[in-house]
Amino acid sequence: MFTSISSVVWSIVGLFAGMLIMLETGRRIGGWRRARDNDGHATGTGAIDGAVFGLIGLLIAFTFAGAAGRFDMRRQLILEEANAIGTAYLRLDLLPAADQRELKTLFRKYVDSRLAVYAVLPDVEAAKGKLAASATLQSEIWSRCVVSSSGAVANGPAVTTLVLSSLNAMIDITTARTVALQTHPPPVIFGMLGVMMLAGSMLAGYGMSSTQKRNWLHMMVFAVLMSSSIYVILDFEYPRGGLIRIDAVDQTLIDVRDAMK
């Protein structure tokens, strides 16, 4: 739904502007209704207003909690990948000495390619190209490890099991990270949030129609707080381009790369 940080920012700006427009629209509708029925224009609306704003709060709370949970999951997966790569690299010492040098060189290239995948985000097309390069290195490492571990006759099948199991875990975690990167709520959820925000703004403006002068302070604070809460949710969902960043956790993978001699 959101392919770049600019699309997120423009969506929030549009939501903010739309909320101000709906606040003014609701205020004018309320003023027109008040002029026609001064005593009954707001009768019985409190329950509806409460239900709508309660639903908005509930949607924001659940969406925020889900976004924060996915953010933590992505951080955990980075740590798991760093551990998996580190373990697989150490187990290369079980292979024949003649094969270790070339495999360790491939591992260093592989870690560099994995870091490059996420360094280019939020450029999705560039990330796909880096991901393809990582997949190629995975295949090459796997093939060479299979041949090398099969030749380690002195240590028996235990070497094959240890080396290939750790390598398999290293490869599997890349799929988990790719899926986690693409896991977001369905677009209809964000669409519903936007519609609810606009509807709530109109109701809030309607409730402010009892005074002739516009209360710009309340209108601006309401629009800023509501749109900011949606921005924070989107920032959690796309933590490679906004103010909430996951880049610092990449340091664990960088440390693994630096430890490779």
Q: In a nutshell, what does this entry contain?
A:
The protein has 261 residues and is mainly alpha-helical. The chain has eight helices and no strands. Helix 2 (46-90) packs antiparallel against helix 5 (157-182).
Give me the count of strands: 0
Order of secondary-structure elements:
HHHHHHHH
Q: What kind of sheet is the major sheet? A: none
How confident overall, as mean pLDDT?
86
Give the radius of gyration: 27 Å
Helix content: over 70%
Give the structural class.
Answer: mainly alpha
Distance between the termini: 42 Å
Q: Which parts are unreliable, with pLDDT below 50 for 5 consecutive residues or more?
A: none
How much of the polypeptide forms β-strand, as a percent range? under 5%
Overall 3D shape:
rod-shaped
- DSSP summary: helix tally: 8
How would you explain this protein's 3D organization?
The structure is a single chain. By secondary structure, this protein is mainly alpha-helical. It has helices at residues 5-36, 46-90, 97-119, 124-150, 157-182, 187-207, 216-237, 251-259. Helix 2 (46-90) runs antiparallel to helix 6. The mean pLDDT is 86.
Give the topology.
Elements: H1 5-36, H2 46-90, H3 97-119, H4 124-150, H5 157-182, H6 187-207, H7 216-237, H8 251-259
Helix pairs in contact: 1-6, 1-7, 2-5, 2-6, 2-7, 3-4, 3-8, 4-5, 6-7
Question: Key terms for this structure?
Answer:
0% strand, 79% helix, mainly alpha
